[in-house]
Amino acid sequence: MDLYAGAGSFGIEAMSRGADRVTFVESARPALRALKANLDALDIDAEVCAMSVERWLTRQDGPHDLVFCDPPWPMASGDLASVLTSLAPSLTPDAIVVITRRTGDVEPEPAGMRISDVRALGGTTIIRYVMER
User: Fold this and answer.
1) Coil, strand, or helix at residue 81?
2) How far apart are CA 125 and CA 44, in angstroms?
3) What is the pTM of this model?
4) Which of 56, 60, 72, 111 has the largest CB neighbor count within 10 A?
């Protein structure tokens, strides 16, 4: 799953490393055009959901075992935690969720997940969550 997919780099990379399927969720028209062009150029057949992540969460499918979440705007920690908490029911018990944040932003604390790794790379922080057992 590639939430806030943009041009699809995370999901496309996952497919290049053996993912069976990827669902891309993106609402911005310019990003959707770039995503579809990238998928076409690489001859990748994937589900593209042209809607907001929040709307997609109301109809989500699953189960998903790997989720990339890279919102393109500053998103309040509580709002992002709410998105991640809403996502949890569609995840496998051993799912991994990877989010990106601006370095210095508060790390979200979604219900049902715990942080397993945090890495700061310049102005970006990458946070990996795993499902709590």
Assistant:
1) helix
2) 29
3) 0.91
4) 56
Asked if 12 and 24 touch (Cβ cutoff 8 Å), the reply is no
For the chain, 133 residues long, give each residue's pLDDT as a single digit of tens. Answer: 999 999 999 999 999 999 999 999 999 999 999 999 999 999 999 999 999 999 999 887 789 999 999 987 778 888 999 999 999 888 999 999 999 999 988 889 898 999 999 999 999 999 999 998 7
Peptide bond into 63 cis (omega under 30): yes
Residues in the chain: 133
Q: Show the domain range for 78.
A: 2-131
Q: What's the CATH code of the domain at 11?
A: 3.40.50.150
